[in-house]
Amino acid sequence: MEGVGRVDKTEFTECWRTSWKTPYIMRLAFSAGLGGLLFGYDTGVISGALLYIRDDFKSVDRKTWLQETIVSMAVAGAIFGAAIGGWMNDKFGRKKSILVADFLFFIGAIVMAVAPAPWMIIIGRIFVGLGVGMASMTSPLYISEASPARIRGALVSTNGLLITGGQFLSYLINLAFTRAPGTWRWMLGVAGIPALVQFILMLSLPESPRWLYRKNKVDEARAILEKIYPAEEVEEEMKALQSSVEAEKAEEDSIGDGIISKVKGAWSNDVVRRGLYAGITVQVAQQFVGINTVMYYSPTIVQLAGFASNKTALALSLVTSGLNALGSIVSMVTVDRYGRRKLMIISMIGIIVCLLALTVVFHESSIHSPSISRFESSHFGGNSTCSSYLTASDASSWNCMTCLKASSECRYCATSPNKSTSNDGPIWLVIRYYDLAKHSDSSIVLQYLPGACLEANDATKGVCGAEHRVWYTKGCPSKIGGLAVALLGLYIILYSPGMGTVPWIVNSEIYPLRYRGIGGGIAAVSNWTSNLLVSETFLTLTEAIGSAGTFMLFAGFSFLGLIAIYFLVPETKGLPFEEVEKMLEKGYRPSICSKEKDAKKMDVNPSLS
């Protein structure tokens, strides 16, 4: 009704309304967003595949650094892919960059699927990484430049949704192939299918209208804008592009067009440098909250929490992945109602709380892990007992965690729950009672009692399993393992809507057009470099300082990230690219005493210039 204040609709609602009227917009966003699906699939699939690669290649099972290398070489490739992608985006366009990324990803998937040895898996991971790195920055950039400003955030969030959707899909496929011959080969090889699909779809789509205008292909740019914007808005958008491009061309004449000159020009330009402060901050913070330790090693973390079965670990990891996808949908609904900055700050506070809680849970699980019994350890024969345990001067004080950390050759064999007693006493210390609600006998496990520390080989593992015992390779039996998995799920719920998707949105809209490719490339490289550091050191850290110490370390990094986001990252909600540029010209200082309701009212901060 006229005269009554309009209800403030989210950009998500506006997105669906606009896409319904102009389906071409959604077609562009979905086709480019498949790059996010590739990104997500690769992130998730290796976590499950690694369990079975360890089974097939004993050198991988015994060498933590080799496991970390298989995981992190994709990240190393992504660093170079993101750097090359930034240059390719500006030189050859967003569309061609996505096509090249698809080709690289497809080749990498095939190489991994047929790999006869770990070194070939690593080569395939590098190819996949190159493709993922290019797609990780090009897809959201393409979507943002082909989207109306009023629904840009929601559409870029579709890329984040497809990333988490790809992760969820990878866990489903991992579970589907657990009993298939070749297990991990199928898991890794299937990744080539979405790359091929996107390659075909992108062949029929146009280049980014903003890039075309920048290359003086004005008529082509107009033709695309006419498919995206209502007729009455096309001319206004063309004028905005003209003004922005003319200013950037004048600046280019003084800076140069090479990649080195662009990098120097970016850091010497006040506006771009302030944008990079924000863009790099959110990308580095996204990784140092430890998210990809959960994504790359989720089944392994579940095993550290006390769930020994590969299939159980994958199934529980599927839950966390599903929550991640759900969080991306929440982000699409909220990112343009509450703003980028507020979502990230809330997300970071929640992440810190969860990491501290995980620290406590893993610490308690470690100090209360079952002890080692010399009787149980010798039960399978002297040659089966772990040599490190036999020669240890303090063997009487060993527990399950001590056994697993002592050597890569030691494993823990839990005592069978079907057995009631041993020389060391009862297997389970329990309280039995009659449950009136269930009308049946129930019991509470108070303590797991001693198990065996054995040599890590297939023969000993087989003998352990033959007695219906559980074979532990990473973590130990724990009464609070379920709580650890629940906290991982909560961590994902708090991460995904904020730090999961918003950093990519911020980086797709905070740089001037002239520097959007190189700025996004620099930020993406910082993201992947941080990712590499985290993924290459996670297993080593868990061995050196324990799972509890590792999560405590990530909590500390997250706190530093929260402080950096508060002081360096402005709000870009709902602002056209030109308004973002004007805002950065002034600099940014957070308001401590009052809420920031409008990003246009930012104060000047000389210290950031």
From TrEMBL:
The chain crosses the membrane at residues 28-53, 65-85, 97-115, 121-143, 155-177, 183-205, 313-331, 343-362, 483-506, 544-569. The keyword Transport applies. It comes from the Eukaryota. The keyword Transmembrane helix applies. PROSITE patterns: MFS, SUGAR_TRANSPORT_1, SUGAR_TRANSPORT_2. Signal peptide: none annotated. SUPFAM superfamilies: MFS general substrate transporter. One of its GO terms (cellular component) is plasma membrane. Its main location: membrane. Residues 28-573 form the Major facilitator superfamily (MFS) profile domain. Keywords: Membrane, Symport, Transmembrane, Transmembrane helix, Transport. InterPro entries: MFS_dom, MFS_sugar_transport-like, MFS_trans_sf, Myo-inositol_Transporter, Sugar/inositol_transpt, Sugar_transporter_CS. It is found in: Membrane. It is a multi-pass membrane protein. GO terms for molecular function: myo-inositol:proton symporter activity. Belongs to the major facilitator superfamily. Sugar transporter (TC 2.A.1.1) family. This is Major facilitator superfamily (MFS) profile domain-containing protein.
